[in-house]
DNA sequence: TTAGGGTTAG
């Protein structure tokens, strides 16, 4: 019989099994795997224990009690039960010790079942029994059991016991039922320090930092002196709400009382300063701690990651190991991984993964989720999938992380499938799930499917959540329905800074920069404080709409008026602006002088600028830098190859193709999508699969004749004959975007715009043709490519011919 | 013999 089975055998039969093991019933939790284990029904339903003679036991009752204590304290629950069966079982004291033993050893289910056996045998539970039982109910996350025990308290007249009420407050809050905790607290005739601490901790547990701070202040008003637990609780509350000033005041109080040198309080202070964005305060405090433990080092590593200082995060790890001779634990790994994710440090992330395996930290759901995020961010979807597939337990965060990994890597169909899978599970999607999946809907789903998800969201508990509405606004903008975005935005009762950032960005990607800047002014007038993302939206608007002077003005005001330091995204927008005006040298100098390490996104901006200004040398520099950061950036290879082709450098085209083949990379097949009457249609170049293909081609031929593009004309004319032949093969005449526009013109209402979406950038020839078609047909044509939406009207494009 | 505790995923 295995130790766990033996333990249950004792629990229900009180008869010794033949091969009694002296081992512990179960090892303490090393990780968050499936624990405690489930037991077979036949063990649970074993017979009621027979009555035994207690004469001998009574003679040795004192030594038996000592033995019971010893076994419980050492976690040997099997032995404790063996002793218990020899004791006086009408004495609640003995039952309490066993229940406490189970609870302290994480065997919550067993604790509850043992209490039920106590009830069954008619032994009256007392004021000591219930705190242990309530704690066990909390441990097993059993709200129904807590309520049952709570009801019992009324019957036995213990509903006012301060210890029991404190336990109830803590457990209700832990299970997310803060109103129940508040009710118990309010009805307590006597409240002590622990009661207040339980409520402060309870508010923190449900993420309500403000109420926790108010509770703390009320506690001081009624004359109760805070202890270390109060300080830790209220500092957590300040961290949640970003209340730096209150946090500093608490720090002053800490300095005045005995808890000043308490390392736990100091860790909470450090964490609070990090979460309030004050690395400097956190560092100063950290340096003063003479005896640093792993937890305080972990808090520091986490703080650096939180404040976008990944290098410092890794330096911390080094010093912790070399100077303090401390061994990193699973939490160290969890705190380090976001730093790897931030800078795309795949090798370092893999080392951490290896370390975690070697040191037995896995399975660990938080650590594994952090690994999924890392691999997702580093485009290693297969690794992420493998970890996700092997998770012993999946929680909502792990599902959300895997969905985000798919979306981040453009694997939108897989993301949708996974989301559907999640919906069929008992887990309820939360605002993070919805905001993660909506970009996939905006990329690949049909309008019908998007309306379906919108309907699904409106039935969710969080349907009016600002976070979800912001994502919905962006989803409609990203799939070309800017009007719907504006309608949802207008109907929002509460708009936060992200709502404004979203709508500014929505107009930005559609090339309506003026509208974006007007919205920014409106936002400021309404007293909304812009943040870093506001300026990303605003600078994107200026960049896409070619508003160069305004761009520089906002870039300057960001720091001067709002005290916001430019981040990598802002620098990217400025390089786009410089590229637009043809200042390639300035753009390169800008990159060289940037205080941040250039990322692939930065080099990507330079590459776009080089392409649009036909500077192959600089494009090569940019591309090499991108490929040194992202070896499998297919788009980068393709763009460079197209530039060589346009310049007639066919040897270089061959060289790029060879490199791509060597790396197993394939060019993304360019597709154009059109939706009419909620039916999606997909076109590839020279596509003839559509049932109305003949009509589409006939209409296209007529249009091309009318706009003077019926003969092969290319933007670059200096080709050798052989090159011209190669070019002819790639003629834009029947490119997918033209086929989609042609079908759009004949299948939609006359006054409606034709909306086409592409998975890759629209080529220059089709861009020119679309301008002419809009002029000739007097129809608005909208083409959303992989970067921006082009609104073609009266022969002009909203992008100002730069994209 | 009872209650509350620092760092951990988007």
UniProtKB/TrEMBL annotation:
Ranges for domain DYW: 728-803
PROSITE patterns for this protein: PPR
PPR repeats: 91-125, 161-195, 262-296, 395-429, 496-530, 531-566, 633-667
Domain of life from the UniProt record: Eukaryota
UniProt cross-references to InterPro entries, sorted A to Z: DYW_dom (IPR032867), E_motif (IPR046848), PPR_At4g14850-like_plant (IPR046960), PPR_rpt (IPR002885), TPR-like_helical_dom_sf (IPR011990)
An MF annotation (GO) of this entry: zinc ion binding
Keywords, ordered alphabetically: Repeat
Single Gene Ontology BP annotation: plant organ development
Family indicated by similarity: Belongs to the PPR family. PCMP-H subfamily.
Entry protein name: Putative tetratricopeptide-like helical domain, DYW domain-containing protein
